[in-house]
Amino acid sequence: MTDYSGLLARIARRAGQDEPDIPLDSGLPAPLPQAAIDTAEERLGFRLHPLLAAVYRDFANGGFGPDYQLFSLVNGPTSEQAIDSYLEARTTQAGTEWAWPEGVLPILNWGCGMYACVDCRSEQGRVLLFDPNPGDPDAAWWIDSPSLEDWFEHYVNDTAWWVKAEAGEDTDEMPPWPEARHRAAL
User: Fold this and answer.
1) Do 42 and 17 contact (CB within 8 A), yes or no?
2) Over pLDDT 70: what percentage of the chain?
3) Which of 130, 112, 109, 110 shows the shortest CA–CA distance to 177?
4) Where are the beta strands (DSSP E) in the chain?
């Protein structure tokens, strides 16, 4: 088991500096007990990436992070819950060209229908960007970060594409994620 305590401490310091677009009335939500994470994983049918589980269990049930903040996993104060968002997307889009890939958990809404998602089936917890705005399901999935750890490091250090975009800088082109169609069929 990987020790994420150093990264979680840096996330906590960074979260304390956030000026959320939609602040939570009650402040940062308490972390979830392991039993709640176990129940959530049963509902999903897969395990969370270990770092994502550690964030929800050892730091907070969402409510921090860039822009609209990480979703609560379950029973939290954020306007969207990660588990419910995943199950709804898998159900409502099933059998269509927009079918949601198995094991890809939405964790943050960027607005305009765009989501940051964690590929919980990948060993590194690849972070994907879902952007339906071009109108083509084959052009909707991008690799935001090769790992969840890298994604959080970018958040902590203000080095992510979203920081550069807000500053008016050009952002690096993200590579497409070609597995979306295959994973949606599972």
Assistant:
1) no
2) 94
3) 130
4) 104-111, 114-119, 127-130, 141-145
- Residue 20, pLDDT score: 66
> Are 47 and 41 spatial neighbours (Cβ–Cβ below 8 Å)?
yes
Contacts 24+ apart (CB under 8 A), 45-49: 46/102, 46/103, 46/120, 46/121, 47/120, 48/73, 48/105, 48/118, 48/120, 49/118, 49/119, 49/120, 49/122, 49/125, 49/148
Tokens of 65: 């992070």
**27 near 73, Cβ under 8 Å?**
no
pLDDT category of residue 182 using cuts at 50, 70 and 90: confident
Tens-place pLDDT, residues 44-58: 999 999 999 999 999
pLDDT in tens, 100-138: 999 999 999 999 999 999 999 999 999 999 999 989 998
- Cβ 71 vs Cβ 106: under 8 Å: yes
- The H or E element containing residue 90 is helix 82-92
CB atoms within 10 A of CB 160: 20
